[in-house]
Specification:
Elements: H1 20-29, E1 32-34, E2 59-63, H2 66-78, E3 85-90, E4 93-98, E5 101-102, E6 120-123, E7 143-144, E8 150-152, E9 160-165, H3 172-179, E10 190-192, E11 197-199, E12 205-207, E13 217-222, H4 231-234, H5 245-263, E14 282-285, H6 305-317, H7 337-340, H8 353-366, H9 368-371, H10 382-395, H11 405-411
Parallel strand pairs: 7-11, 9-13, 9-14, 10-13
Antiparallel strand pairs: 1-2, 2-6, 3-4, 3-6, 4-5, 8-12, 10-11
Helix pairs in contact: 1-6, 5-6
């Protein structure tokens, strides 16, 4: 099998146009690919270079984080015999391949090193092997509870996967039952919690999930989730509140990987790129559709998109992706992160009695108009949650009933 695009091809980073193996390889390393007219379209008469009489475009530039690009370049060096060119330069490290030879320490590329610090360049006349080979993705769905809130799609197969939060509820089944009621007039393609992944609308149809963006994405909703969650909340592994959020995130990654594999959607997070990014393909949040998607703000600014996509790529490739650190939540501007940066209190959570009491005492004493009834008992129950929500509403904070860094910084309970 040979590789080469028509001469003059231009594909911007993350856009469609490459064969599937390019997106699979990029997904394995968290990179996006691009090329441009004239990119390695020469017919080089050099050892290790395949003939190119039709002047095909055989160059690809790969971009991502420095660590991911270095990991990719090191992998390419390990399979150098199947490559014509690799050029990558990072502080203290160079990786170079020419005609299957390692030229990392040679002067072969001369001044070219300086222009390859922000991307990895490759030239190849055949697909680059995927490390470990492609991995079959097992069906992630545990069942189905169909919603009548749908319509036939007329725009072709979507090129985006959109992530949503429920802003209430608790379980996937409870959410699916709500969506099955025609009076509620809302739906998604799939919903999940840590226990179940349920189909709600057939992938060949469009759900009622994001106004004008319904037909342009496969839509996934995390049951019982909130856009106001902190990063640590999304990655919480204990079930003290009745939910293992970290496991739910993995189940959602499994659904996303399934769709990426089935529909050849690049496993790249394109959120924050001023959607609709016509020409870009990948995974984003509901919020990225802006007013076109109904003006929603989910899954929120702290959704761990990097960790979510790391899990998606690992499921797609079977290649272990470097684990990402669980960072403390970001404190409100002007506050001491050591004081409020790690605060995370919510209904049902235990083992934080002293902090809960401090919140209750502050609410009761300072905001008697609506919280004077609170008992300072360390139990974050319904009344405490209601008082927190009212405080958030009056303070202009996301109303989720959770005392995270922003709410704690505003409330100043200690």
């Amino acid at each position: 099998m040979t590789y080469g695009l028509p001469g003059g091809t231009r594909i911007t980073y993350g856009a469609k146009g490459f064969p599937p193996w390019v997106y699979q390889l990029g997904g394995a390393f968290g990179l996006r690919a691009s090329t441009y007219p004239g990119h390695q379209e020469s017919d080089r008469n050099e050892v290790g270079f395949a003939p190119n009489p039709h002047r095909l475009n055989r160059g690809i530039d790969w971009v991502g984080s420095v660590d991911d690009m270095q990991r990719f370049a090191d992998y390419l060096l390990s399979i150098k015999n199947s490559l014509e060119q690799v050029i990558w330069s990072s502080p203290g490290r160079r990786v170079g391949v020419a005609g299957g030879r390692d030229v990392s320490t040679h002067a072969y590329y001369g001044d070219a090193w300086a222009g390859h610090r922000d991307h990895v360049h490759t030239r190849q006349s055949a697909p680059i092997p995927l490390p470990g080979g492609p991995v079959p993705i097992p069906d992630p769905f545990t069942g189905a509870l169909w919603s009548p809130s749908r319509r036939s799609r007329s725009k072709g197969a979507p090129r985006w996967i959109a992530v949503h939060t429920q802003e209430g509820g608790r379980t996937a089944r409870g959410l699916a039952q709500f969506l099955a009621d025609p009076a509620n007039k809302v739906s998604y393609h799939a919903v999940c919690d840590e226990h179940e992944a349920l189909k709600v609308v057939r992938e060949s149809d469009a759900p009622w999930a994001a106004a004008g963006a319904n037909e342009y994405a496969y839509h996934l909703c995390f049951a019982g989730s909130f856009a106001g969650w902190s990063r640590n909340k999304w990655l919480e592994t204990d079930a003290a509140d009745g939910k293992n959020e970290d496991l739910q995130l993995t189940r959602g990654a499994h659904i996303t990987a399934w769709w990426c594999h089935k529909y050849n959607v690049p496993p790249s997070w394109i959120g924050g790129t001023k959607i609709p990014p016509w020409g870009l393909e990948g995974v984003c949040g509901h919020q990225d559709f802006g007013s076109w998607g109904g003006g929603h703000t989910d899954p929120g600014p702290n959704f761990p998109a990097d960790e979510f996509m790391r899990r998606v790529r690992q499921l797609l490739t079977g290649v272990a992706q470097p684990p990402l650190p669980v960072l403390p939540p970001v404190a409100a501007p002007g506050t001491d992160p050591g004081k409020y940066g790690g605060v995370l209190l919510y209904r049902g959570r235990r083992n934080d009695t002293d902090q809960v009491q401090a919140v209750q005492r502050r609410l009761r004493d300072a905001y008697r108009a609506y919280a004077g009834h609170l008992a300072v008992d360390g139990d974050f129950g319904a009344r405490t949650e209601a008082a927190v929500r009212e405080f958030q509403r009056r303070s202009g904070i996301v109303v989720d009933g959770i005392v995270g860094p922003m709410t704690a910084a505003a409330l100043k309970p200690w």
